[in-house]
Task: structure prediction
Amino acid sequence: MGKELLSQYNHLQVEIEDLKRRINKTKSQIERLESEGTVLDMVKGSRKDGTIGSIRIEGFPIPSYDAKLSQLYRYKFNLENAEQQAIKLTNKIEFYINSIDDCRMRMIIRYRFIDKLTWNEVAAKMGGGNTEDGIRMAVTRFFDKI
Result:
């Protein structure tokens, strides 16, 4: 249960970051549409005087703008859901971590999966001559045991 829960939490955090990136990108695209205002285009057609030729068209790209706004709202909705899911998952993980009898393992797992430290940073925090590989193997053996 624990390893899958921690893995799911990690993937959810990546998804949240991706949604934030998408929101920022979409906001930038909307701002660009708003700042540029109108778009120009040329089409062939009949003019008012009945002659056929090139006609200049100018206007605000409402369909593109509306599509970007809809996309932004969807991303924000998805982000809100993912953040709510992350809160629930964090509570489950904290409960799981607190149920581990070995305090050293509790600290390692908390540093690595909740605080998102690298294995090297976890080893440094644990002190006592711990190495990156030693810490990683201890966690692997712990999860293999349960």
About this structure: The beta strands are 39-46, 52-59. The first strand starts at residue 39 and ends at 46.
